[in-house]
Write a structure and sequence with these properties.
Layout: H1 4-33, H2 45-49, H3 55-72, H4 75-81, H5 88-101, H6 106-121, H7 144-152, H8 163-169, H9 172-180, H10 185-190, H11 193-203, H12 211-248, E1 253-257, E2 260-263, H13 264-269, H14 272-277, H15 280-299, H16 321-334, H17 349-372, E3 380-382, E4 387-389, H18 392-398, H19 408-435, H20 440-473, H21 477-505
Antiparallel strand pairs: 1-2, 3-4
């Protein structure tokens, strides 16, 4: 039986804990309401210092008052208030308060969960939880954090752990291993691990407030939180980058999620920091929608900002060979497509090979027409959906008898043919794309083909710049200028392709 002096000391210690909790709660309410909440008479700081004779009554009143404040304070508010600057003694007082209450409600458990995890993430001495644990009474070593919790909660009536709950605790280590294998946000959300762990915590019932349980759960929470934040930030960055690129291309609607159109404005308004600071349980639906949005964008064809720079104007003066050579070199350096804004999967060798076959058939069909057509009309080639207009050098290239030569003129002719054929294929695929908007699987095939063609246009533009430079250096200025003109046409087709993908896909 406790002596009167010892009992009074314990009551004073308990009151000090509650006073610390009250101060923390007052700050929360001040931040939420923009002003102080009136403290009941006798429970203010000055009155508590002079309540020696009425400790039991004051404690009873204080508990009722804090329970009332509890009803207005959510786990999310606690999460946001616990910052790296929060004094550890405040967090320890909060933990003692909630463990003493041991209410079975989800809200009380979530607050206790948050506070214990905060203490785990912010040790008094950096790295102290990573040290080797110590055995007590010959038992298996305890983790340093569990030992710290035992000391913090030494004055609390800690429940014993039944065997079935010990078995439940052993499921957390495999869950941490599962977390380490997640590589993207969608996989994490689809795994259902958030719901599984929440259910596991509920099964622990009142044992949740045991130091061993809190130590195990806190270590899991820290591992999960770090991975969750990392993958969410990565997914959100990709979504926002895609939205910015789409807006620059003239698009406004990214996709549809749950029957609701998601616009670039919606994406720009997503505040990742606020979502991460909120309670996972209450904001899970928002995280799920972000995951679904990411999935929808992943299923869309890769969109690249394919801006082939305009070919430099070639010199039109007889003595302009040096200037034209310099312009050709600049065009070769600037011709490649810009880097992908939204990182798409790489174009595969199989896709390139398939497209090469289609290009050869286009080249051959244009060549046959140019060679047999009336010279007056050979520069207008009838295609399936449009008429393809050729420049005189391009038409000459298709009818040239020297294409197999290893010479500058053959290189120029082959370059012109390649640029024209890619432009023709892009136009054809864009027409097919527009006609198949209501057939998602067919639409995707044509969109993928456009992406492959843009990649091939990139390579062709680079090669064309080099051929033009060589032609200039060998004195074939008109040939170099013909490449610049065809490169400009290819650029125009690439611009149209990117804008069409952006608008049609949205």
């Amino acid at each position: 039986m406790l002596s009167g002096a010892r009992l009074a000391e314990d009551l004073r210690f308990e009151l000090a804990i509650l006073a610390t909790v009250q101060g923390f709660y007052q700050k929360l309410m001040r931040d939420a309401l923009g002003g102080d909440v009136p403290i009941p008479s006798g429970l203010d700081e000055d009155a508590l210092r002079h309540s020696e004779r009425e400790l039991p009554t004051t404690l009873s009143r204080m508990y009722r008052w804090l329970h009332l404040l509890d009803m207005a304070i959510t786990p999310a508010m606690v999460r946001q208030a616990l910052t790296p600057e929060t004094d550890s003694e405040v967090a320890e007082a909060l933990l003692r308060y909630f463990v003493r209450r041991r209410e079975p409600s989800d809200v009380n458990r979530d607050k206790t969960d948050l506070i214990a995890t905060f203490l785990y993430r912010h040790p008094r001495v950096p790295g102290q939880w990573e040290r080797t644990g110590y055995g007590l009474d010959g038992a298996l070593p305890l983790s340093p954090f569990e030992i710290a919790l035992i000391e913090i909660l030494a004055d609390s009536d800690v429940p014993s752990l039944p065997e079935e709950h010990v078995q439940l605790l052993r499921r957390f280590d495999p869950l941490r291993d599962e977390i380490a294998r997640f590589r993207d946000f969608n996989t994490l959300i689809d795994s259902g691990i958030i719901g599984r762990v929440r259910e596991l915590k509920q099964w622990l019932d009142s044992s949740f407030y045991h130091p061993g349980v809190l130590a195990t759960v806190s270590a899991y929470n820290a591992t999960f939180g770090k991975k969750f934040d990392e993958l969410f930030a990565k997914a959100l960055t990709e979504i926002k980058t895609f939205g910015q690129a789409l807006e620059e291309m003239g698009g406004t609607i990214l996709t549809t999620v749950d029957g609701v159109e998601v616009t670039v404005e919606h994406v720009a308004a997503i505040q990742g920091k606020q979502l991460l600071e909120a309670d996972y349980g209450s904001t899970f639906e928002k995280f799920r929608r972000v995951s679904k949005l990411k999935k929808e964008l992943d299923r869309r064809p890769p969109i690249r900002r394919s801006l082939l720079t305009p070919a430099a104007h070639s010199s039109r003066t007889a003595g302009g060979t040096g200037a034209a050579a310099k312009a050709a070199k600049a065009a070769a350096a600037k011709a490649p497509l810009a880097a992908a804004v939204f990182q798409p999967p790489a174009v595969t060798a199989q896709q390139i090979s398939a497209e090469e076959g289609k290009l050869r058939r286009v080249e051959e069909s244009i060549r046959v027409f140019v060679r047999v057509a009336d010279p007056k009309y050979r520069q207008v080639v009838p295609m399936r959906f449009f008429n393809l207009t050729l420049t005189t050098p391009e038409a000459d290239a298709y009818s040239a008898p020297f294409l197999e030569e290893k010479s500058t003129r053959a290189d120029v002719a082959r370059t012109l043919i390649r640029m024209v054929s890619i432009s023709a294929r892009i136009s054809t695929e864009l027409e097919e794309l527009k006609r198949s908007q209501k057939m998602s699987s067919v639409w995707k095939l044509h969109a993928d083909s456009v992406v492959v063609l843009l990649d091939m246009a990139n390579t062709t533009a680079e090669d064309g710049g080099s051929v033009a430079q060589t032609a200039e250096q060998s004195g074939a200025g008109p040939a170099a200028r013909s490449i610049h003109e065809s490169a400009q046409k290819l650029r125009n087709h690439a611009d149209v392709a990117v804008k069409t993908l952006a608008n049609v896909a949205s």
